[in-house]
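Weekly puzzle thread! Below is a chain. First person to post its structure in token form gets bragging rights.
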Amino acid sequence: MLLTTLSDLGRQSLAALRLLVVLTLVLGIAYPVATWGVAQAFGDRAAGQPVEVDGRVVGSRLLGQSFDGPQWFHARPSANDHDPLASAPSNLGPLNEDLIATIAQRRAEVAQRESVPESNVPPDAVTASGSGLDPHVSPAYAELQVERVARANGLTPAAVRTLVAVHTQGRFLGIHGEPGVNVLELNVALAEAAAGSAGAGGD
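Winning reply:
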């Protein structure tokens, strides 16, 4: 009886080991490799849609980042300083006194920086997205920054507005979401335009 029991345990252990090996090969190796292979058909999407300038990665089209200085379009605020490893909202409710005070401070700062009345400051200029990593701003917030950016880069407002228009993305399928401007892509194009303008001026 004891030998029979040990024999059954041995067969069960061997079957379990075989199953472990098969699942490891299928789920641990074959499936990830197949998924990676399929992803390559979608180009840079498999790599997080990096943005390169002169062969150097400067960011991702999918992740917002901070831009300091009057020469750049600024992103919307972030509760986590645009840290992709700490993606989260502030979790403060709309009636929270700290949030209300923070929004009021941001509105005053944006109005002063852009030389406009506080009533002209759009909501996304003073509120963070749920992830804190939104790479877009509204066309209204981009327009608010045009005069400052043009002045700082020695460009005409019309030229900068053209860049904003080119980098404004419409609603998905024409109905989902809201139009947005990818700040990183816009700033890359802005830097190229400013460099070209400086080069033309030097000639």
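Puzzle host: Confirmed. Bonus trivia for everyone else. Strands lie at 50-53, 56-60, 136-137, 168-169, 180-182.
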